[in-house]
Fold each of these.
Amino acid sequence: MLERTHLRVIQAVEQQGSLTAAAQVLCVTQSALSHTMRKLEDNIGTAVWLREGRSLRLTQAGRFLLNIANRVLPVLEHAEGKLKQIACGERGTLRIGMECHPCYQWLLKVVSPFLDAWPDVDVDVKQKFQFGGVGALLDYEIDLLVTPDPFYKSGLNFQPVFDYEQVLVVPQHHPLTAVEYARAEDLRDQVLLTYPVPTDRLDIYTQFLNPAMVVPKQHKTSETTDIMLQMVACGRGVAALPRWLAEEYCTRLPLAVVRLGEYGIAKQIYLGTRENDGDIEYLQAFTELARAYQYPTGATNP
């Protein structure tokens, strides 16, 4: 009863906002699309949409089918793409998912030699996923996940490829530059700048501020590293970033780096893949390049 066409229609209507727009995207007439969905509703015995004026609202059955469509269609598209590549003798595309804002700078350093070494493999980077990075891996939306926070799950493999230290970035003449390391209490009267990530996923909170029950004076977010550190350089706040990235910006802006706590905050970048993709040569090659890369600021690999 349920066919791929039905899932594509439901997804297209949700994305485009109307039957008319969905029909255009799917290259069918609106009447043909409506007929297809009415037949499905007759077969399953319940409505998929309810009309509200000119708009459509998904029913419980419709929301369930949309969820299925969002999970199943990427898997089918990935399978078809792989089969086409095999038939044509092509390597295809390495789809990389990012769960780490500052890691994007590190990724660029690895992608360049990878593209040189694998001229028949393209790279596509995705930074937003419908069901999170792990879900994107399991649903074949991506082939490799870059993350500082691995989530071990059956069928997935996470490998550490790069060690780094999370540090506090302050203006060049900030009072904290005179101390050996910053204490959580030192941030109580500071404006903290971070990426727009929930605080329960920010190391500066989970490993530094929360254990000491300290809340910064104000918490602001920025999408881009450049803007964040321009604000820090202008005395608008402080930020927590990987040491290798912070030291790179210190060569361009009047910034300084301060250790977070007496022993610092040690982190790693992990690459996550599906276990059944272990024999894909270019995936293995990318991981090996990532482990071998030495960041010029002096960070070391495991």
Amino acid sequence: MKTYLLAVLACAIALPIAWELNAPSSCFLLAAMVSSLYGGRGPGYVTILISSILFDFFFLLPRFHFLHSGESFLRLVVFIAAMVLATALIAARRRAEESLRQTQAKLAQATQTATMSQFSASVIHEISQPLSAMVANGQACIRWLAVDPPNIAHAKGAVERIVRDGKDAGEIIKGLRTLFRRSPPKKEPVDLRHIVNEVVSLLRGRVVKEKVMVEVNLPKDLPTVIGDRIQLQQVLMNLVLNAMDSMQTVTDRPKALAIRSTEQEGMVLTEISDQGVGIANFDKVFETFFTTKEDGMGMGLSICKSIIEAHEGRLWGSPGPVAGTVFTFAIPSSTEGAEAE
């Protein structure tokens, strides 16, 4: 309803201006464009109808009549045609933008799913560890309670370990649910330290299997950022997985992965550096469908860049100081956003 009130208001504003400037075509066309841009196709066509009536009654000769000569009638037809065309073009642009947003969302979901498949084995390993420990401690508890007299102290310790392992498994499952959850982006204060710890925890199994040394350097006073936690987790997961993939064939140096965060001039910078094979062309690496992997889709880094830019930040890559690659993304801190307000 409010969008249709916008159409009426646009015509009400356009009429006196058109009368004063004697420029009805321009003023009413502008009113139709505003209604279409901010209200949609329906309010745009309502504006065309109202504008046509006002144009006919107030500006065609003789004025204040609805019946005119053939020349005036032709002028009215041209006026309506121009407004309909402008409204249709704007509506088409809105549909194209909406289609683009939906496509980007689907691509992001597809990349998210593809990313998950790469570390599914690590996740299974991580979940199986606490579950196996819970079974072992449960059996130990039964044995301690079965002796005569029951060893309550040892049984209590076994139960406490079961609770601890259950919490560990719950945290892993919670991390997986957030990665797979399909919900609209939610901007809120986000602690990047928690996201980094979650990603490292999820990939712990693969890190051990591939003998990757992981260094995490996150200051305790690192400010929070305003953003969508799931999307930022997706970005970090993709960058870390790419770093690990780049070191799979490395044999002449240690496989080292470093994640560091710092604050610089109101921005929180996060670096993911590796000792992998490196990247030859940093200009193309963020292009859609460009990939250096045999089984890659070429969408991961492109979507990561779009996500970071949607957070008013920047993502870039550079060669490592000795070998490998350093990917860095910078996002405004929440304190910087509060000062701007």
